Amino acid sequence: DQQVKQNSPSLSVQEGRISILNCDYTNSMFDYFLWYKKYPAEGPTFLISISSIKDKNEDGRFTVFLNKSAKHLSLHIVPSQPGDSAVYFCAASARSAGGTSYGKLTFGQGTILTVHP
Amino acid sequence: NAGVTQTPKFRVLKTGQSMTLLCAQDMNHEYMYWYRQDPGMGLRLIHYSVGEGTTAKGEVPDGYNVSRLKKQNFLLGLESAAPSQTSVYFCASSYSVGATEAFFGQGTRLTVV
């Protein structure tokens, strides 16, 4: 059973426009959410995160929104650039699970973002 | 500034052969992880370690063994490789309690024929 789902396998956006990547989760124990970016033949690199006590976190062109009641989060990239073309993974962790989460991450399937010049 | 380094980067195995994947980190992290990435599945946790001398099972541990004899190294072993283990393997590490983001290696592409 997929506890973290990214239902859009791919997204195509024009340079300068907004990219919105979505992620849904089912496990109520998840209280920390992360987005990773992955280029071909490289490992995932951390992009941005959000704790469940917040509903928004910004870092430059990247903003993550969390809707706990809907168990949904989204990553907004504004403005999108061709260098943003990559696979984006949503991940979740249950940090407050009695300290036993040990940083384990549950990942979504990934969304391939293509930004056209 | 190496971070997390995986060896080898590519490998082709015949069914039934064994091999060990090596992961080394130079960030003095307590926690280390092995994930596999398959098309349409995202990354799934195989085994993890919360410190030197400790290991624990993740989501998909069958067919794999691990060891953490030194804090900086985490080894993933396949005793008898099967075609179902064809995948891209990623090692990662993170700080201890309260760990947030994990740092990943560049991956090992393994093909079992």
Uncertain segments of chain A of ≥5 residues (pLDDT<50)? Answer: none
The greatest interface between two protein chains, and residues involved on each side, is: A-B, 27 and 30 residues
Please state the oligomeric state of the protein chains shown: heterodimer
SSE pattern of chain A: EEEEEEEEEEE
List segments of chain B where confidence is low: pLDDT < 50 over at least 5 consecutive residues: none
Please tally the β strands of chain B and state the result.
11
Q: Which structural class fits the helix and strand makeup of chain B?
A: mainly beta
Radius of gyration of chain A: 14 Å
> What is the chain-wise order of helices and strands of chain B?
EEEEEEEEEEE
β-strand number of chain A: 11
Cα end-to-end separation of chain B? 36 Å
Give the overall shape of chain A, derived from the CA principal axes.
globular
Q: How many H/I helices of chain A? A: 0
Distance between the ends of chain A:
38 Å
Give the DSSP E fraction of chain B (strand runs of 2 or more residues): over 45%
Q: Percent of residues of chain A in helical segments?
A: under 10%
Q: Beta-strand level of the residues of chain A, as a percent range?
A: over 45%
Shape of chain B: globular
Task: Characterise the protein shown here.
- The complex is a heterodimer of chains A (117) and B (113).
- Chain A has no helices and eleven strands.
- Chain A has strands spanning 4-5, 10-14, 19-25, 32-38, 45-51, 56-59, 62-67, 72-77, 86-93, 106-107, 111-116.
- In chain A, the strands form two sheets. In chain A, strands 2, 4, 5, 9, 10 and 11 form a six-stranded mixed beta sheet that branches. Chain A has a five-stranded antiparallel beta sheet with strand order 1-3-8-7-6, with no helix packed on it.
- The termini of chain A are far apart.
- Chain B is mainly β.
- Chain B is built from no helices and eleven strands.
- Chain B is globular, with a radius of gyration of 13 Å.
- At the A-B interface, strand 4, strand 5, strand 9 and strand 10 of A face strand 4, strand 5, strand 9 and strand 10 of B.
